[in-house]
Amino acid sequence: MVEDQMEFDPMNLINLRELWVVIVGQSNRFTLDSIGRLRLLQSFDLRLYQQGSPWFPPLRPLSHCQHLIQLRLSNNRQQWKLPTELHEFLPNLKFLLLAAEGFMPEDPMPILEKLPQLTILQLMYFNVNKFVCTAGGFPQLQFLHIHMCCDAEELQVEEGGMPLLKGLMVADYIRIPERLRSIPACPWLHDLMDAWAY
């Protein structure tokens, strides 16, 4: 748990493969620079719980973590936006959980669908009316879980989007395309809120 800054010598943690960080307080000085020097990091969980500050650390330092395949982000800070170039500096992500905690009012799909290796996606607490996947989006996605997005009314997937999808969990009140109705639910996706897929 971090309240202000977290700096360390990455040489002391050179073999670290999994890291969980919880940021509390309203500091805007915390960065991911030290974490970005953990070259073997495979799984990273970052949670910001304290309200009151709009600040969220830039994710770009994680581009140096070439082995990073699993990422969980829980955001309780207002006005934070996903970087549009996420697919460029995190191209190896296979598992991603985003918990917006009601503070990310924009559909994340246009950014996330460009992640070339993403196979499992979980979206939680987004205040959006519609999630839209374009043709060709999410080329490797196999499992999608949309949870506690109470304002969501529709998951729109254009023809050619999510071509490998084989597991889907969404609330009954969210409309989905007819061709996705036969895709089975995967209750084990709930376990990934606090566990890793890979």
Look at the structure and give the mean pLDDT: 87
Stated plainly, the CATH topology is called Leucine-rich repeat, LRR (right-handed beta-alpha superhelix)
Q: Which oligomeric state applies?
A: single chain
Structural class: mainly beta
- SSE topology string: EHEEHEHEEEEE
Helix count equals: 3
Q: Globular, elongated, flat, extended or rod-shaped: what is the shape?
A: globular
* Poorly predicted ranges: none
Please name the CATH architecture: Alpha-Beta Horseshoe
Descriptive overview:
- This protein has 198 residues and is mainly β.
- It has one domain: Leucine-rich repeat, LRR (right-handed beta-alpha superhelix).
- It is built from 3 helices and 9 strands.
- A 7-stranded parallel beta sheet has the order 1-2-3-4-5-7-9, with no helix packed on it. A two-stranded parallel ribbon has the order 6-8.
- The longest helix is centred in the N-terminal third of the chain and has 4 residues, at 33-36.
- It is globular.
- The model has no long low-confidence stretch (mean pLDDT 87).
Descriptive key words:
Leucine-rich repeat, LRR (right-handed beta-alpha superhelix), seven-stranded parallel sheet, two-stranded parallel ribbon, 3 helices
Describe how the helices and strands are arranged.
Layout (H helix, E strand, L loop, with lengths): L17 E6 L9 H4 L6 E6 L21 E6 L10 H4 L5 E5 L9 H4 L7 E5 L5 E4 L9 E5 L6 E4 L9 E3 L29
Parallel strand pairs: 1-2, 2-3, 3-4, 4-5, 5-7, 6-8, 7-9
Pfam families: LRR_14
Protein name: Disease resistance R13L4/SHOC-2-like LRR domain-containing protein
Keywords: Repeat
